[in-house]
Fold each of these.
Amino acid sequence: MTLVSDSISAMVFFMMFVRDTDGRRALFNTIGRLFEGLSDIAKAVMIILVADTLLGYHSEEGWTGFLDLVLGHYGIEVEEENIVLFVGIIPIAIDVWFKYWIFIGLNKISPGAVVTIKQLDRH
């Protein structure tokens, strides 16, 4: 029953996210304005905080705990080797996408934030 209700909830959320409505447009515009209103230093710190939380060296336990929580919610038993493999691949893939976004997408939106991140990465 949990799988059915979660699937329906995910479908409804996805449909609301994909539909082009005034409310969704207003939400994305507001988030964009909030991000653009931050200083370059604040943008860089926020990006580094999110990246280190999700992809940092200390995040292996977080990913493992998240998988245990989600899989336990559905009653799925998975071997430890598969979890280690998932934790070894998925964060790296997200990190690659994240760095691509920083150096390509963010460079167009806020070049100053990219310069700040590059300066911080050198130290």
Amino acid sequence: VHESHASATSAAHFALVNVVSFLVDGTPVDFSSFADKPPVSCLKAIEALQRCHEERTVAKFFGACNKVKKELDDCLTDEYKVKRAENFRLAKLSRQRFEEQLKSESTSDTPKPVN
């Protein structure tokens, strides 16, 4: 369990570093190399920002792509909220199953009183 979490964390870190480097210096990002793909609903916004940066190589430093970047930020924020709500729901179910299992184990392990 810990190994897969570490792998997912390092993949997410790798993705974040690549996206940040793209946004800072315009280095193209190959999203096919990511372990976790970017949200499908945000692909148009990602492509629009990449296109804006390619077409406005100097103007991007003076805010020419800020509107497109804001749209991407809003899309990613919405995706984050959806994922967070789903993860919370799954964690709650997992916690309930765990507590039920503990309860059933504690009742089965309890010695019966002798009269």
Amino acid sequence: MKSAFFALLSSVCVAFAVADCSVPDSSKVDCGYVGITESQCQASGCCYAQASNSAIPWCFKQAGSGNCFGYQKSLSTPFSSSEVSTMRNHFLANININGQGGIVAAPDYDTPGGSYYYHWMRDGALTMRCLQDTNTGSFSDIETIVKSYTQWVLHNQNEADPNGQDIRTEPKFNLPNGDVLTAPWCRPQNDGPGLRATALIIAANSLIAAGQKDYVTQYLWTGDNNKYHGGAIKYDLDYVVSGYNSNTCDLWEEIRDPDFFWNRATMKKAMLVGAEFARAMGDSASADSYTSAMQKINGTLYSNHYNGAFVQECAARTRDTAVIVGFNDAFDEADNMFAPSEIEVANTVASYTNLFCSEYSINTQDTANGVPGVLYGRYQGDTYAGGNPWVLSTSALASLFYRAAAHVLQNGVPSSAAMSVWKSAINSPSALPTNAAALAQVFAAQGDGVLLRLRRHVQGNDFHLDEQIDRNTGYQISASDLTWSYAETLNAMYYRGLYLNVANGVKK
């Protein structure tokens, strides 16, 4: 009788385990370690199912244990205009150091990674793009900064590289003079030229609109390869044509691979806008060259990075929020790949949210306390400074929601499959509306929710934005006043404004 009882109990446990293990691939959160067996996995209370894709864990957490996203019911302004102005002033303090065009990553000499008082090519380019995109005044308000940055770039491009590599792949420069860092570092980094060219194209178009085409032809697109290598924009774009497939360091400067999503996606974007700009400048040969390079990059961008469950950064590091930032910075309506409301993005957000809910106790604490949204970090198993949520990654998620809202208004609702994933990803208590305006508002509200959660952890510091938020306490830590944190948060509020403009029929 006793044995029959235990047999019955065992069968009941198995039945519950099967039900609890109905987890879609995009939502599976790793629960094991390399080499774990099925029995070892199940003994730890986890689920086990083999997968054909190595990016999907075989040992994973049960259904319902991953997603802590706090659903936001309605729009709620996360930062007031005065608070945005405060953050922008903190942001501006890190730009154009000593009037020489350099941008400090953070004015902090004592971080877990050492001094951040350097100009990173990547950070600087993204900062300049943010400065221009989020400028609410006239171009003249930022013209001095833009021109100082242009001269900084020209100085960098025309230095002799002390490290024996292409100067355009140097990641890091000393401040305030702009000489190349000679200390050991993860180099080369091939994403910088495309990012820098993209920012400078925005500047060039503004200069031309302001009647200053002569400045553009003198420094940015000279039409003469003997003069500044054809100009700061052309020289950087030409690097992408030949260097997009090179082995490189990742966004976080930790691992190497020739095929990172972030690098490929942003280089594709540079080639798209570069071809358009070259044609406008009367250089059809360069335009054709950039279009050809874009097509080569695009040929494998989708197949190499979307694994059916989520978009991965690379085979060695799958779930990485470089992808989330890339969705925003690299999207182009020319081909609509990875559009913000579509299923590939929905699956990625669902999977990444489960990961970071599992990684950080502050996320489950906030959700239990009724705080909407979620905090994102860098990647699974991050150990830098203890491995925590990052302000920039979290704000990038908010931007993605706002962009999805605007995209739905302009292009209609996504597929029913995407809608189902989104419902689960944001923990919506009911089916998502099929009316475009109503659905867009749901997306925008989730962007607000993410920023409201961020606000909870930064408002006590007078809206100074540091690099990270402690995974347990929720206090800001690591590099103080990180410029990229400000850029991503200002970008998010900018995208919120764009959504509201579209919703209200306002044309920019």
